[in-house]
Amino acid sequence: MRIRFPAAAAAALALACVLAACGNGGNKAPEGIIIDKSNQTQTDSVLEVRARNFEFDRSEYRVKSGEAVRFHFVSEEGVHGIEVPKTGIELRDGQTVTVTFEQPGEYEIICNIPCGVGHAKMFAKLIVEA
Length: 130
Ligand SMILES: [Cu+2]
Prior knowledge:
Layout: H1 4-19, E1 33-36, E2 46-52, E3 55-56, E4 60-64, E5 68-75, E6 82-84, E7 89-91, E8 96-101, E9 105-111, E10 123-129
The protein binds copper (II) ion.
């Protein structure tokens, strides 16, 4: 009993974790956003976001809806990563993902690595145009 109970508790916890989609940070791609991590989708459109201490190279980035875009992230100074909440997009330095937003909309781009004193100020807008 002393051995089995913790095992059962751990199993229950693991199951609860699966049901709550743990490990995904709740940042799953919703309907209307297609994410191609293998970057096989054909496109000439590129969106590059560059970060330094403690800002992005632009306050606003624009992409077109219905068009695949190569979303690329570069951390030029310091250790930064980006996340676009509610889209499933998360990138580390040097990473690229191909994304298609089927609908126009507005999202936030935030730094998702605690990078220092200016961390909380690191955000930009991502505008998906019609
Ligand atoms: Cu940060």
